[in-house]
Amino acid sequence: MTSYVFITGGVVSSLGKGITSACLGAILEARGLTISMIKLDPYINVDPGTMSPFQHGEVFVTADGTETDLDLGHYERFVRTAKGGRHSNYTTGRIYESVIAKERRGDYLGATVQVIPHITDEIKQGVKKGAGDADICLVEIGGTVGDIESLPFLEAIRQMGVELGHDRVVYVHLTLVPYIPTSSEIKTKPTQHSVKELRSIGIQPDILVCRSEKPLPSDERRKIALFTNVQEKAVISAWDADDLYKIPAMMHEQGLDGIVTRQLGLDLPKADLHEWDAIVEAKQNPSAEVNVAMVGKYMDLKDSYISLVEALQHGGIHTRTRVRIHYIESKDIEDHGIERLRDMDGIVVPGGFGDRGIEGKIETVRFARENGIPYLGICLGMQVAVIEAARHLAGLDGAMSTEFDKETAHPVVALITEWQDQTGDTEERSEESDMGGTMRLGAQAVSLQDGSLAARSYGATEIEERHRHRYEVNNNYRDRLAAAGLVFSGLSVDDLVEMVELPGHPFFLASQFHPEFTSNPRDGHPLFKSFISAAREHRLGELPEAAEA
Ligand code: GLN
Q1: Most ligand 1 atoms within 8 A of CB, residue of 356, 379, 416, 438 to mutate
Q2: Which of 142, 202, 290, 378 lies at 20 to 30 Å from 309 by C-alpha?
Q3: pTM of the full predicted structure?
Q4: Residues 498-525: pLDDT tens digits?
Q5: Has 289 been annotated as catalytic?
Protein backbone atom coordinates (compact mmCIF):
# COMPACT_ATOMS: atom_id res chain seq x y z
CA MET A 1 0.00 0.00 0.00
CA THR A 2 1.59 3.22 -1.17
CA SER A 3 1.63 6.33 1.00
CA TYR A 4 1.94 9.79 -0.48
CA VAL A 5 4.00 12.88 0.21
CA PHE A 6 2.78 15.95 -1.64
CA ILE A 7 5.18 18.84 -2.07
CA THR A 8 3.85 22.30 -2.88
CA GLY A 9 5.68 25.60 -3.14
CA GLY A 10 4.86 29.09 -2.00
CA VAL A 11 5.97 32.75 -2.09
CA VAL A 12 8.11 32.58 -5.23
CA SER A 13 9.11 30.06 -7.87
CA SER A 14 12.64 28.72 -8.40
CA LEU A 15 13.12 27.78 -4.75
CA GLY A 16 14.59 24.43 -5.70
CA LYS A 17 11.43 22.43 -5.12
CA GLY A 18 12.66 19.71 -7.48
CA ILE A 19 15.94 19.32 -5.60
CA THR A 20 14.17 19.42 -2.24
CA SER A 21 11.74 16.71 -3.36
CA ALA A 22 14.61 14.62 -4.74
CA CYS A 23 16.57 14.98 -1.47
CA LEU A 24 13.54 14.00 0.57
CA GLY A 25 13.24 10.95 -1.70
CA ALA A 26 16.91 10.20 -1.08
CA ILE A 27 16.68 10.25 2.72
CA LEU A 28 13.50 8.17 2.73
CA GLU A 29 15.14 5.67 0.42
CA ALA A 30 18.12 5.65 2.79
CA ARG A 31 15.77 4.15 5.38
CA GLY A 32 15.11 1.17 3.17
CA LEU A 33 11.93 2.35 1.44
CA THR A 34 11.15 2.13 -2.25
CA ILE A 35 10.20 5.48 -3.72
CA SER A 36 8.35 6.64 -6.81
CA MET A 37 8.31 10.27 -7.84
CA ILE A 38 5.85 12.31 -9.87
CA LYS A 39 5.83 15.89 -11.13
CA LEU A 40 2.54 17.65 -11.81
CA ASP A 41 3.01 20.65 -14.08
CA PRO A 42 0.21 23.22 -14.27
CA TYR A 43 1.08 24.57 -17.74
CA ILE A 44 -1.07 23.73 -20.74
CA ASN A 45 1.55 22.25 -23.08
CA VAL A 46 0.89 18.52 -23.29
CA ASP A 47 4.53 17.80 -22.55
CA PRO A 48 7.72 19.90 -22.41
CA GLY A 49 9.06 18.30 -25.61
CA THR A 50 8.14 21.31 -27.71
CA MET A 51 9.10 24.00 -25.22
CA SER A 52 12.12 26.26 -25.73
CA PRO A 53 15.07 25.39 -23.55
CA PHE A 54 15.38 29.15 -22.99
CA GLN A 55 12.10 29.09 -21.11
CA HIS A 56 11.96 25.67 -19.70
CA GLY A 57 15.47 24.31 -19.43
CA GLU A 58 16.33 20.81 -20.46
CA VAL A 59 13.86 18.20 -21.62
CA PHE A 60 14.64 15.09 -19.61
CA VAL A 61 14.05 11.79 -21.41
CA THR A 62 13.00 8.77 -19.36
CA ALA A 63 13.87 5.17 -20.23
CA ASP A 64 10.49 4.61 -21.89
CA GLY A 65 11.08 7.62 -24.13
CA THR A 66 8.83 10.18 -22.46
CA GLU A 67 9.94 13.81 -22.78
CA THR A 68 9.58 15.20 -19.28
CA ASP A 69 10.31 18.11 -17.00
CA LEU A 70 13.92 18.49 -15.89
CA ASP A 71 12.93 17.80 -12.28
CA LEU A 72 12.58 14.15 -13.25
CA GLY A 73 16.31 14.24 -13.86
CA HIS A 74 16.87 15.34 -10.26
CA TYR A 75 14.63 12.53 -9.06
CA GLU A 76 16.53 9.84 -10.96
CA ARG A 77 19.89 11.25 -9.90
CA PHE A 78 18.98 11.27 -6.22
CA VAL A 79 16.71 8.26 -5.87
CA ARG A 80 17.69 4.85 -7.20
CA THR A 81 14.26 3.26 -6.93
CA ALA A 82 12.53 6.17 -8.69
CA LYS A 83 12.30 5.16 -12.33
CA GLY A 84 10.56 7.89 -14.27
CA GLY A 85 8.28 7.17 -17.20
CA ARG A 86 5.01 7.94 -18.93
CA HIS A 87 3.13 8.19 -15.65
CA SER A 88 5.65 10.30 -13.80
CA ASN A 89 4.88 13.70 -15.31
CA TYR A 90 1.45 15.17 -15.99
CA THR A 91 0.64 18.62 -17.30
CA THR A 92 -2.72 20.37 -17.37
CA GLY A 93 -2.68 19.89 -21.13
CA ARG A 94 -2.21 16.17 -20.85
CA ILE A 95 -4.96 15.79 -18.23
CA TYR A 96 -7.43 17.79 -20.32
CA GLU A 97 -6.43 15.96 -23.49
CA SER A 98 -7.32 12.68 -21.90
CA VAL A 99 -10.58 13.94 -20.32
CA ILE A 100 -11.69 15.44 -23.63
CA ALA A 101 -10.87 12.20 -25.46
CA LYS A 102 -13.03 10.30 -22.94
CA GLU A 103 -15.84 12.81 -23.33
CA ARG A 104 -15.74 12.42 -27.14
CA ARG A 105 -15.88 8.65 -26.76
CA GLY A 106 -18.97 9.01 -24.59
CA ASP A 107 -17.29 7.56 -21.51
CA TYR A 108 -19.04 10.05 -19.22
CA LEU A 109 -22.48 8.83 -20.33
CA GLY A 110 -23.85 12.26 -21.07
CA ALA A 111 -22.78 13.89 -17.80
CA THR A 112 -21.67 17.53 -17.78
CA VAL A 113 -17.89 17.28 -17.68
CA GLN A 114 -16.41 19.53 -14.99
CA VAL A 115 -13.16 20.35 -13.22
CA ILE A 116 -14.52 18.67 -10.10
CA PRO A 117 -14.88 15.69 -10.30
CA HIS A 118 -13.71 14.85 -13.85
CA ILE A 119 -10.43 16.72 -14.07
CA THR A 120 -9.56 16.01 -10.45
CA ASP A 121 -10.41 12.31 -10.88
CA GLU A 122 -8.15 12.15 -13.92
CA ILE A 123 -5.33 13.70 -11.90
CA LYS A 124 -5.84 11.25 -9.04
CA GLN A 125 -5.86 8.27 -11.40
CA GLY A 126 -2.67 9.54 -13.02
CA VAL A 127 -0.98 9.93 -9.64
CA LYS A 128 -1.96 6.39 -8.65
CA LYS A 129 -0.56 5.00 -11.89
CA GLY A 130 2.69 6.89 -11.39
CA ALA A 131 2.93 5.71 -7.78
CA GLY A 132 3.20 2.10 -8.91
CA ASP A 133 3.86 -0.25 -6.01
CA ALA A 134 6.44 1.91 -4.24
CA ASP A 135 6.27 2.26 -0.45
CA ILE A 136 6.09 6.03 -0.76
CA CYS A 137 5.22 8.17 -3.74
CA LEU A 138 6.48 11.74 -3.68
CA VAL A 139 4.40 14.11 -5.77
CA GLU A 140 5.74 17.57 -6.54
CA ILE A 141 3.25 20.17 -7.71
CA GLY A 142 4.84 22.71 -10.03
CA GLY A 143 4.16 26.43 -9.78
CA THR A 144 3.32 28.42 -6.68
CA VAL A 145 0.30 28.19 -4.41
CA GLY A 146 -2.06 30.95 -5.48
CA ASP A 147 -1.58 30.41 -9.23
CA ILE A 148 -4.82 29.93 -11.11
CA GLU A 149 -3.42 27.00 -13.10
CA SER A 150 -2.45 24.87 -10.15
CA LEU A 151 -5.87 24.88 -8.44
CA PRO A 152 -7.21 21.61 -9.93
CA PHE A 153 -4.00 19.82 -8.92
CA LEU A 154 -4.19 21.18 -5.36
CA GLU A 155 -7.83 20.18 -5.16
CA ALA A 156 -6.95 16.66 -6.31
CA ILE A 157 -4.24 16.24 -3.67
CA ARG A 158 -6.56 17.69 -1.02
CA GLN A 159 -9.12 15.02 -1.90
CA MET A 160 -6.50 12.29 -1.69
CA GLY A 161 -5.70 13.39 1.85
CA VAL A 162 -9.33 12.96 2.85
CA GLU A 163 -9.72 9.67 1.03
CA LEU A 164 -6.55 8.01 2.29
CA GLY A 165 -6.29 9.59 5.72
CA HIS A 166 -3.61 11.36 7.72
CA ASP A 167 -1.49 8.24 8.14
CA ARG A 168 -1.17 7.74 4.39
CA VAL A 169 -0.68 11.32 3.21
CA VAL A 170 1.87 13.96 4.21
CA TYR A 171 1.80 17.53 2.95
CA VAL A 172 5.10 19.38 2.66
CA HIS A 173 5.15 23.06 1.78
CA LEU A 174 8.30 24.81 0.60
CA THR A 175 8.55 28.56 1.16
CA LEU A 176 11.01 31.40 1.11
CA VAL A 177 12.11 33.16 4.28
CA PRO A 178 13.90 36.24 2.97
CA TYR A 179 16.57 38.23 4.72
CA ILE A 180 16.29 42.03 4.40
CA PRO A 181 19.82 43.41 4.61
CA THR A 182 18.83 47.06 5.18
CA SER A 183 17.09 46.20 8.45
CA SER A 184 19.10 43.00 9.12
CA GLU A 185 15.87 41.11 9.57
CA ILE A 186 14.53 37.71 8.63
CA LYS A 187 10.97 37.92 7.36
CA THR A 188 8.47 35.18 8.11
CA LYS A 189 5.39 37.01 6.83
CA PRO A 190 5.50 35.64 3.25
CA THR A 191 5.56 32.11 4.70
CA GLN A 192 2.61 32.88 6.95
CA HIS A 193 0.64 34.19 3.97
CA SER A 194 1.55 31.29 1.77
CA VAL A 195 0.37 28.76 4.34
CA LYS A 196 -2.81 30.80 4.84
CA GLU A 197 -3.43 30.54 1.12
CA LEU A 198 -2.89 26.79 1.20
CA ARG A 199 -5.19 26.35 4.20
CA SER A 200 -7.89 28.39 2.48
CA ILE A 201 -8.11 25.66 -0.14
CA GLY A 202 -8.25 23.01 2.52
CA ILE A 203 -4.67 21.84 2.85
CA GLN A 204 -2.94 22.09 6.22
CA PRO A 205 0.76 21.41 5.69
CA ASP A 206 2.37 18.91 8.04
CA ILE A 207 5.89 20.05 7.28
CA LEU A 208 7.36 23.37 6.16
CA VAL A 209 10.69 23.53 4.42
CA CYS A 210 11.92 27.10 4.66
CA ARG A 211 14.46 28.24 2.11
CA SER A 212 16.74 30.95 3.42
CA GLU A 213 20.23 32.25 2.99
CA LYS A 214 21.41 31.15 6.44
CA PRO A 215 20.09 28.56 8.91
CA LEU A 216 16.82 29.71 10.45
CA PRO A 217 17.23 30.93 14.10
CA SER A 218 15.04 29.08 16.60
CA ASP A 219 12.96 32.18 17.38
CA GLU A 220 11.87 32.43 13.77
CA ARG A 221 11.19 28.74 13.64
CA ARG A 222 8.93 29.01 16.66
CA LYS A 223 7.15 32.01 15.21
CA ILE A 224 6.51 30.28 11.89
CA ALA A 225 5.20 27.19 13.69
CA LEU A 226 2.82 29.28 15.79
CA PHE A 227 1.39 31.20 12.85
CA THR A 228 1.04 28.25 10.50
CA ASN A 229 -0.29 25.57 12.82
CA VAL A 230 2.70 23.35 12.10
CA GLN A 231 4.72 21.61 14.82
CA GLU A 232 7.94 23.45 15.59
CA LYS A 233 10.14 20.45 14.90
CA ALA A 234 8.43 20.13 11.50
CA VAL A 235 9.65 23.58 10.45
CA ILE A 236 12.76 22.55 8.55
CA SER A 237 15.42 25.04 7.59
CA ALA A 238 16.93 24.65 4.14
CA TRP A 239 19.68 27.21 3.83
CA ASP A 240 21.75 27.87 0.71
CA ALA A 241 24.19 25.00 0.41
CA ASP A 242 27.51 25.38 -1.38
CA ASP A 243 27.07 21.82 -2.56
CA LEU A 244 23.86 20.15 -3.66
CA TYR A 245 24.93 16.85 -2.15
CA LYS A 246 25.01 18.29 1.35
CA ILE A 247 21.25 18.76 1.30
CA PRO A 248 20.21 15.16 2.13
CA ALA A 249 22.33 15.28 5.30
CA MET A 250 21.09 18.80 6.10
CA MET A 251 17.51 17.57 6.01
CA HIS A 252 18.18 14.31 7.79
CA GLU A 253 19.96 16.07 10.64
CA GLN A 254 16.80 18.09 11.29
CA GLY A 255 14.81 14.87 11.42
CA LEU A 256 12.81 15.32 8.22
CA ASP A 257 12.72 11.62 7.25
CA GLY A 258 11.69 10.71 10.81
CA ILE A 259 8.79 13.17 10.78
CA VAL A 260 7.46 11.65 7.56
CA THR A 261 7.91 8.02 8.57
CA ARG A 262 6.37 8.58 12.02
CA GLN A 263 3.27 10.17 10.52
CA LEU A 264 2.97 7.24 8.13
CA GLY A 265 3.36 4.81 11.04
CA LEU A 266 6.52 3.21 9.61
CA ASP A 267 9.07 1.66 11.93
CA LEU A 268 12.34 1.64 10.05
CA PRO A 269 16.10 1.38 10.51
CA LYS A 270 18.08 4.62 10.69
CA ALA A 271 18.95 6.39 7.47
CA ASP A 272 22.16 5.23 5.86
CA LEU A 273 23.67 8.29 4.19
CA HIS A 274 27.26 7.11 3.84
CA GLU A 275 27.17 7.30 0.03
CA TRP A 276 26.14 10.96 0.19
CA ASP A 277 28.85 11.68 2.74
CA ALA A 278 31.38 10.03 0.44
CA ILE A 279 30.31 12.26 -2.46
CA VAL A 280 30.71 15.42 -0.40
CA GLU A 281 34.09 14.20 0.84
CA ALA A 282 35.28 13.41 -2.70
CA LYS A 283 34.15 16.80 -3.97
CA GLN A 284 35.97 18.58 -1.19
CA ASN A 285 39.25 16.76 -1.69
CA PRO A 286 40.06 16.64 -5.39
CA SER A 287 43.54 15.59 -6.43
CA ALA A 288 43.51 17.52 -9.71
CA GLU A 289 41.54 20.12 -11.57
CA VAL A 290 40.54 20.15 -15.23
CA ASN A 291 39.09 22.80 -17.53
CA VAL A 292 36.35 21.50 -19.76
CA ALA A 293 34.76 23.60 -22.48
CA MET A 294 31.14 23.03 -23.37
CA VAL A 295 30.53 24.48 -26.79
CA GLY A 296 26.85 24.82 -27.50
CA LYS A 297 23.92 27.07 -28.06
CA TYR A 298 22.09 27.90 -24.85
CA MET A 299 25.19 28.63 -22.89
CA ASP A 300 23.85 31.46 -20.79
CA LEU A 301 21.13 29.18 -19.55
CA LYS A 302 22.85 26.29 -17.81
CA ASP A 303 19.52 24.62 -17.12
CA SER A 304 19.30 23.62 -20.78
CA TYR A 305 22.14 21.17 -20.21
CA ILE A 306 21.57 20.37 -16.58
CA SER A 307 21.93 16.57 -16.86
CA LEU A 308 25.12 16.95 -18.86
CA VAL A 309 26.62 19.44 -16.42
CA GLU A 310 25.73 17.06 -13.60
CA ALA A 311 27.15 14.04 -15.42
CA LEU A 312 30.49 15.85 -15.93
CA GLN A 313 30.54 16.65 -12.23
CA HIS A 314 29.79 13.00 -11.42
CA GLY A 315 32.77 12.08 -13.59
CA GLY A 316 34.80 14.44 -11.41
CA ILE A 317 33.51 12.92 -8.16
CA HIS A 318 34.53 9.45 -9.24
CA THR A 319 38.00 10.44 -10.41
CA ARG A 320 38.65 12.94 -7.60
CA THR A 321 38.85 15.74 -10.09
CA ARG A 322 37.54 19.27 -9.81
CA VAL A 323 35.79 19.91 -13.10
CA ARG A 324 35.65 23.55 -14.16
CA ILE A 325 33.16 23.93 -16.94
CA HIS A 326 33.54 26.83 -19.36
CA TYR A 327 30.37 27.60 -21.27
CA ILE A 328 31.14 28.81 -24.75
CA GLU A 329 28.66 29.91 -27.40
CA SER A 330 29.57 28.14 -30.62
CA LYS A 331 28.67 31.37 -32.43
CA ASP A 332 31.55 33.02 -30.54
CA ILE A 333 33.94 30.45 -32.00
CA GLU A 334 32.70 31.48 -35.45
CA ASP A 335 33.12 35.16 -34.69
CA HIS A 336 36.28 35.17 -32.60
CA GLY A 337 38.08 31.92 -33.43
CA ILE A 338 39.17 28.97 -31.31
CA GLU A 339 41.56 30.87 -29.01
CA ARG A 340 39.41 30.23 -25.96
CA LEU A 341 39.77 26.49 -26.42
CA ARG A 342 43.54 26.50 -26.16
CA ASP A 343 43.78 26.04 -22.40
CA MET A 344 41.16 23.35 -22.21
CA ASP A 345 41.80 19.81 -20.99
CA GLY A 346 38.61 18.50 -22.52
CA ILE A 347 35.95 19.67 -24.95
CA VAL A 348 32.28 18.68 -25.07
CA VAL A 349 29.84 19.48 -27.84
CA PRO A 350 26.41 18.70 -26.43
CA GLY A 351 23.12 17.89 -28.13
CA GLY A 352 21.21 20.59 -29.93
CA PHE A 353 18.75 21.55 -32.61
CA GLY A 354 18.92 24.30 -35.20
CA ASP A 355 21.79 25.61 -37.25
CA ARG A 356 22.96 28.62 -35.24
CA GLY A 357 26.64 28.23 -34.51
CA ILE A 358 26.93 24.93 -36.36
CA GLU A 359 30.15 25.89 -38.17
CA GLY A 360 31.62 26.93 -34.81
CA LYS A 361 30.91 23.43 -33.50
CA ILE A 362 32.58 21.85 -36.53
CA GLU A 363 35.62 24.10 -36.01
CA THR A 364 35.65 23.07 -32.35
CA VAL A 365 35.81 19.39 -33.26
CA ARG A 366 38.61 20.07 -35.71
CA PHE A 367 40.57 21.89 -33.06
CA ALA A 368 40.11 19.06 -30.53
CA ARG A 369 41.04 16.43 -33.12
CA GLU A 370 44.13 18.19 -34.46
CA ASN A 371 45.43 19.19 -31.04
CA GLY A 372 44.88 15.93 -29.21
CA ILE A 373 42.43 17.43 -26.73
CA PRO A 374 39.98 14.91 -25.25
CA TYR A 375 36.68 15.26 -27.09
CA LEU A 376 33.28 14.02 -26.05
CA GLY A 377 30.46 14.59 -28.53
CA ILE A 378 26.86 14.03 -27.59
CA CYS A 379 24.08 13.58 -30.14
CA LEU A 380 24.55 16.71 -32.30
CA GLY A 381 28.11 16.60 -30.94
CA MET A 382 28.55 13.23 -32.65
CA GLN A 383 26.94 14.44 -35.86
CA VAL A 384 29.34 17.40 -36.11
CA ALA A 385 32.25 15.03 -35.42
CA VAL A 386 31.14 12.94 -38.40
CA ILE A 387 30.76 16.05 -40.56
CA GLU A 388 34.20 17.25 -39.54
CA ALA A 389 35.78 13.88 -40.32
CA ALA A 390 33.96 13.79 -43.66
CA ARG A 391 35.22 17.22 -44.65
CA HIS A 392 38.77 17.11 -43.38
CA LEU A 393 39.72 13.42 -43.23
CA ALA A 394 37.69 11.93 -46.08
CA GLY A 395 37.91 14.98 -48.34
CA LEU A 396 34.16 15.25 -48.79
CA ASP A 397 34.01 19.01 -49.29
CA GLY A 398 30.87 20.69 -48.06
CA ALA A 399 29.70 17.63 -46.11
CA MET A 400 26.81 18.54 -43.85
CA SER A 401 23.69 17.31 -42.10
CA THR A 402 20.50 17.85 -44.09
CA GLU A 403 19.10 19.38 -40.91
CA PHE A 404 21.20 22.44 -41.76
CA ASP A 405 21.61 22.23 -45.52
CA LYS A 406 19.10 20.37 -47.61
CA GLU A 407 21.24 20.82 -50.73
CA THR A 408 24.55 19.62 -49.36
CA ALA A 409 26.72 17.68 -51.78
CA HIS A 410 27.48 15.13 -49.05
CA PRO A 411 24.60 14.46 -46.67
CA VAL A 412 26.66 12.45 -44.20
CA VAL A 413 23.95 13.00 -41.60
CA ALA A 414 20.33 12.93 -42.73
CA LEU A 415 16.86 11.66 -41.98
CA ILE A 416 16.68 7.90 -42.54
CA THR A 417 13.98 8.45 -45.15
CA GLU A 418 16.37 10.69 -47.03
CA TRP A 419 19.35 8.38 -47.15
CA GLN A 420 17.51 5.13 -47.55
CA ASP A 421 16.14 6.13 -50.95
CA GLN A 422 19.45 7.59 -51.92
CA THR A 423 20.93 5.86 -54.92
CA GLY A 424 24.29 7.48 -54.67
CA ASP A 425 23.15 10.56 -56.51
CA THR A 426 22.26 13.15 -53.91
CA GLU A 427 19.98 14.99 -56.32
CA GLU A 428 17.54 12.14 -56.15
CA ARG A 429 16.77 12.76 -52.52
CA SER A 430 13.12 13.51 -52.09
CA GLU A 431 12.22 17.01 -51.03
CA GLU A 432 9.06 15.98 -49.20
CA SER A 433 10.91 13.95 -46.64
CA ASP A 434 11.72 17.29 -44.98
CA MET A 435 9.86 16.79 -41.70
CA GLY A 436 9.36 13.10 -42.37
CA GLY A 437 11.55 11.83 -39.57
CA THR A 438 10.14 11.13 -36.20
CA MET A 439 12.17 11.48 -33.08
CA ARG A 440 14.05 8.40 -31.85
CA LEU A 441 13.30 8.46 -28.15
CA GLY A 442 14.16 6.50 -25.04
CA ALA A 443 16.38 3.60 -24.07
CA GLN A 444 17.67 1.36 -26.86
CA ALA A 445 20.33 -1.31 -27.04
CA VAL A 446 23.76 -0.49 -28.45
CA SER A 447 26.49 -2.99 -29.38
CA LEU A 448 30.04 -1.82 -28.92
CA GLN A 449 33.05 -3.01 -30.90
CA ASP A 450 35.29 -5.22 -28.84
CA GLY A 451 38.45 -3.44 -27.72
CA SER A 452 37.24 0.00 -28.80
CA LEU A 453 37.59 3.03 -26.54
CA ALA A 454 33.81 2.88 -26.14
CA ALA A 455 33.86 -0.75 -24.99
CA ARG A 456 36.85 -0.14 -22.73
CA SER A 457 35.13 2.84 -21.15
CA TYR A 458 31.94 0.90 -20.47
CA GLY A 459 33.72 -2.32 -19.60
CA ALA A 460 31.01 -4.01 -21.68
CA THR A 461 30.00 -4.55 -25.28
CA GLU A 462 26.24 -4.52 -24.82
CA ILE A 463 24.77 -1.37 -23.32
CA GLU A 464 21.51 0.54 -23.26
CA GLU A 465 21.26 4.32 -23.47
CA ARG A 466 18.57 6.94 -24.04
CA HIS A 467 17.96 8.81 -27.27
CA ARG A 468 16.34 12.02 -28.44
CA HIS A 469 17.09 12.91 -32.03
CA ARG A 470 15.83 12.75 -35.60
CA TYR A 471 18.84 12.66 -37.87
CA GLU A 472 21.17 9.68 -38.32
CA VAL A 473 24.59 9.08 -39.79
CA ASN A 474 24.05 8.20 -43.46
CA ASN A 475 25.10 4.56 -43.84
CA ASN A 476 25.92 5.16 -47.52
CA TYR A 477 28.97 7.11 -46.36
CA ARG A 478 30.20 4.67 -43.75
CA ASP A 479 32.80 2.98 -45.97
CA ARG A 480 34.34 6.24 -47.08
CA LEU A 481 34.46 7.58 -43.53
CA ALA A 482 35.91 4.34 -42.19
CA ALA A 483 38.60 4.39 -44.87
CA ALA A 484 39.52 7.87 -43.63
CA GLY A 485 40.03 6.54 -40.10
CA LEU A 486 36.72 7.08 -38.33
CA VAL A 487 35.70 4.01 -36.32
CA PHE A 488 32.01 3.26 -35.86
CA SER A 489 32.41 1.65 -32.50
CA GLY A 490 28.75 1.55 -31.47
CA LEU A 491 25.83 0.31 -33.57
CA SER A 492 22.13 -0.08 -32.88
CA VAL A 493 20.22 -3.31 -33.43
CA ASP A 494 19.03 -1.91 -36.78
CA ASP A 495 22.56 -0.96 -37.82
CA LEU A 496 22.44 2.77 -37.13
CA VAL A 497 25.59 4.52 -35.97
CA GLU A 498 25.54 5.01 -32.20
CA MET A 499 29.18 5.81 -31.44
CA VAL A 500 32.22 7.01 -33.34
CA GLU A 501 35.82 7.34 -32.29
CA LEU A 502 39.29 8.10 -33.65
CA PRO A 503 42.04 5.68 -32.69
CA GLY A 504 45.40 7.35 -32.24
CA HIS A 505 43.81 10.38 -30.63
CA PRO A 506 44.15 10.45 -26.81
CA PHE A 507 40.36 10.46 -26.40
CA PHE A 508 37.97 11.17 -29.22
CA LEU A 509 34.58 9.62 -28.61
CA ALA A 510 31.07 10.64 -29.51
CA SER A 511 27.63 9.12 -29.12
CA GLN A 512 24.32 9.55 -30.88
CA PHE A 513 22.58 8.79 -27.59
CA HIS A 514 22.52 10.90 -24.42
CA PRO A 515 24.59 9.17 -21.72
CA GLU A 516 23.97 12.10 -19.36
CA PHE A 517 20.42 10.93 -18.66
CA THR A 518 21.63 7.81 -16.88
CA SER A 519 24.44 9.32 -14.83
CA ASN A 520 24.00 9.76 -11.09
CA PRO A 521 26.34 11.07 -8.42
CA ARG A 522 26.60 7.87 -6.44
CA ASP A 523 27.59 5.57 -9.32
CA GLY A 524 28.95 8.03 -11.88
CA HIS A 525 28.77 7.06 -15.55
CA PRO A 526 31.44 5.08 -17.43
CA LEU A 527 31.70 7.51 -20.36
CA PHE A 528 32.02 10.58 -18.20
CA LYS A 529 34.46 8.90 -15.86
CA SER A 530 36.71 7.95 -18.74
CA PHE A 531 36.36 11.37 -20.39
CA ILE A 532 37.32 13.17 -17.18
CA SER A 533 40.20 10.72 -16.65
CA ALA A 534 41.43 11.59 -20.14
CA ALA A 535 41.12 15.31 -19.36
CA ARG A 536 43.15 14.72 -16.19
CA GLU A 537 45.83 12.94 -18.17
CA HIS A 538 45.86 15.81 -20.64
CA ARG A 539 46.24 18.23 -17.79
CA LEU A 540 48.88 16.31 -15.92
CA GLY A 541 50.74 15.39 -19.10
CA GLU A 542 50.52 11.67 -18.42
CA LEU A 543 50.57 9.27 -21.34
CA PRO A 544 46.91 8.63 -22.13
CA GLU A 545 45.83 5.03 -22.01
CA ALA A 546 44.21 5.19 -25.44
CA ALA A 547 47.44 6.28 -27.12
CA GLU A 548 49.29 3.27 -25.74
CA ALA A 549 46.79 0.83 -27.16
N1 GLN B 1 19.32 17.94 -34.11
C2 GLN B 1 19.88 16.64 -34.14
C3 GLN B 1 18.87 15.58 -34.51
O4 GLN B 1 17.70 15.81 -34.43
C5 GLN B 1 20.52 16.30 -32.81
C6 GLN B 1 19.54 16.20 -31.69
C7 GLN B 1 20.20 16.26 -30.35
O8 GLN B 1 21.35 16.63 -30.25
N9 GLN B 1 19.46 15.94 -29.31
O10 GLN B 1 19.23 14.49 -34.88
Answers
A1: 379
A2: 142
A3: 0.92
A4: 999 999 999 999 999 999 999 999 999 9
A5: no
